[in-house]
Amino acid sequence: MINLLFYFFSSFSIVFSLAVIVSKNPVHSVLSLILVFFNVAGFFVILGAEFLALLFIVVYVGAVAVLFLFVIMMLDIKFVSLNFSMYRYILIFFVFGFIFFFNFFFIFFDDLISIKTRYNFLSFFVNYFLSVDFISNWCSFVMFSNNLIIFSYFIYTYYFFPFVISSIILLISMIGAISLTLHRRNDVKRQFIYKQINRTFSNSIVWKN
Amino acid sequence: MEKLNLKMTTYFIAYFNILLKSFAIILPLLLAVAFLTLLERKIMASMHQRKGPNVVGFFGLLQAFADGLKLFIKETIFPNSANILIFVLAPITTFLISLVVWAAIPFGDNLVISDLNLGVVYIFAISSLGVYGIIFSGWSSNSKWAFLGSLRSTAQMISYEVSIGIIVLCVLLCVGSLNFFDIVESQRKIWFVVPLFPLFIMFFVSGLAETNRSPFDLPEAEAELVSGYNTEYSGIGFVLFFLGEYSNMVLMSSIITIYFFGGWFSPFNYISVLPILPGTFWFGLKTASFLFLFIWVRATYPRYRYDQLMRLGWKVFLPFSLGWLIFVAGFLLGFDLYI
């Protein structure tokens, strides 16, 4: 059953990610991108990480893809003409494919945690799972801990440094995006609610001779 | 052969079980939507001092079914320049998503289709997909009104989802679990409206905006946009959008009941003067009273301007709910440390 689901999700994600590139209508390609996200969330469910799967759907499908759709629908491109040959890009494809491949290679075989932390992490596992406390209480551990509890336990203890770093990076990028797009125009009439609320009879009516 | 037969029977029973369970949710839900429309028309009528529908059936009880029949036998019209595939898929998606969410909502003690440990996140994830039906319907019908309505609706739903998420986080901090049964069980002593009253008010208003109800029904704004994203839909497409919207309303009120009003616990637990009613009765009563509140608001308040709506979402609700999140976390931590 698990194998069947894996092949289902992986084949559909490959088909739809090809459709993202190939389809002429940009809205169709965003639609297939959403379906790719869904199938990848299915992978997470197979791996037993339901929380990550749901988070993936909330963030990527519920927020990121909607913004893509907004931008694409507001732009006035109905159809991109595909009359030029795609083979022109094959060299670039190989270069970028090579870079991505090695990126993933290094990520999978080396992570960003320092050796000391990793040692602590391992020693935590050894100490915890071989302790008397755990052996006598493993039943309650299995019963009362779920995906989220274990996930947050590790994030806030042993992986807190990458967690904080990534949150700071996200904050900086958010502020950067806002400051890039924010330009106040002075010739627009604005509504200041606090001014309206603070208006009283005495400071709005002036007797002029 | 014997063994295979047994296996087939087991599978059949399992599938039949799932089928029956989903029908046991879907049919009452559709009935509830039908009577909700009647309720809305009757209440609005009595607030306007009219009679409302009173011809079909006693007190117009069959009015909703007559309307449904009329819509079902109407012709389905496809606009000439519409993108047919997405045009057909959009109402189906809306309706499907509004039904799928109900799998994790508990109605009483142990009355739920699937008791998820991450029920809150599940509902949040699925209801964040509800945007797609609207935005795709607006784009695919290739009409300016529908497109503007869908853009408005999407921006509104995304903005208010943020504050809803943070308010739910405050409730979850008090509970310490994402399971709906745990959430309701932790309100046995006191409902969360009492300690978290401002959050309840904000959640209710955000729920109004999230379900595109008035005073935030800008996507429909019939004076300027005809009727928003479903302008080009007729017949069954319109019915599916309508059912989706109203079942989202029922969903929002039952979520408010679970988060803030103690789910299926009766308000008279300590007095026990009344004969003991089942928990589902109290759940239904609370949900129905919130639906009444939705309709009451519609009959009372005028529509917001769009920039006022965005200001309320981003500049009022978001900072206030973030502040409450930090306050609740600090308060709980303080209690843990010193008491």
Write up what this structure looks like:
The complex is a heterodimer of chains A (209) and B (339). With 209 residues, chain A is mostly helical. Helix content of chain A is 76%, strand content 0%. Chain A is extended. Chain B has helices spanning 2-47, 63-72, 84-100, 119-128, 130-140, 144-175, 180-185, 197-210, 222-225, 236-260, 279-300, 306-338. Helices cover 68% and strands 0% of the residues of chain B. The model of chain B has no long low-confidence stretch (mean pLDDT 86). Chain B contains twelve helices and no strands. At the A-B interface, helix 2 and helix 3 of A face helix 4, helix 5 and helix 6 of B.
Greatest interface by residues involved: A-B, 23 and 25 residues
State the helicity of chain B in percent bands. Answer: 55-70%
Overall structural domain count of chain B: 2
- How large is the share of residues in beta strands of chain B? under 5%
Summarize the entry for a quick read:
With 209 residues, chain A is mainly α.
Explain the layout of strands and helices.
The complex is a heterodimer of chains A (209) and B (339).
Chain A: H1 2-22, H2 26-47, H3 50-74, H4 90-109, H5 115-129, H6 132-144, H7 147-157, H8 160-181, H9 193-198, H10 201-204
Chain B: H1 2-47, H2 63-72, H3 84-100, H4 119-128, H5 130-140, H6 144-175, H7 180-185, H8 197-210, H9 222-225, H10 236-260, H11 279-300, H12 306-338
Helix pairs in contact in B: 1-10, 1-11, 3-5, 3-10, 5-6, 6-8, 6-12, 8-10, 10-11
